[in-house]
Amino acid sequence: MGLFNKFSDQISGVGKNISNSTQQFVNETKIQASIREKKNTINEALLNLGKAYYTAHADDKDSEFAGTIEAIRSEYKSIDELKRQLSGVRGKTICPKCGAEIDKDVAFCPKCGANLAEAAKAEKEKETAAPEAETPADAPKEETAAADETKAAEAPAGGEKPQE
Ligand SMILES: [Zn+2]
Fold it and tell me: Ligand 1 centre from 43 Cα, in Å?
């Protein structure tokens, strides 16, 4: 019967190895999940730090990250342009004052109340007066782009309708 005992020892040995490696796998997975969680927390904090820095130094030409800030600014501009294109595709337009997407044929922006006929006129005059002043280094438009999220979050659902 010696042979049988040896055989069953081997079997239970295999079982032990399997459960050991399963336990090891579970432990590894747990630790890796913890590491991932910590990294996510760090990344979120770094993101907030970066956003705070960007906001504080957006106009700081001497910032040691001026290049990165400029790159972000440029991407914000591209997003603005893409949003305009998107509105065009949807048959809508963008309020030049608050950046809200609005119907093309309204006289006043339903969000901020801007007089759109006047705004369009001013825009046209600006274009004809200075065609190459399209991207001045410190155009006030960036603020709109950067504050876009905040504004969208703050904006009341159904803004007041301006009188005609
Ligand atoms: Zn508006």
Answer: 34
Which pLDDT value is given to residue 25?
94
DSSP 102: E
CA 71 to chain centre: 15
What confidence score (pLDDT) does residue 47 get? 97
Q: CA dist 64 to 68, 82, 97, 159, Å? A: 9, 29, 32, 41
Helix (H) or strand (E) holding 92: strand 92-94
Ligand 1 centroid to 116 CA: how many Å? 8
Long-range contacts of residues 41-46, Cβ cutoff 8 Å, at least 24 apart: none
Q: Average of pLDDT values for 30-52?
A: 98
CA–centroid distance, 101 to ligand 1, in Å, is 8
Q: What residues does 102 pair with on adjacent strands?
A: 93
Mean pLDDT lowest among 6-10, 12-16, 66-70, 149-153: 149-153
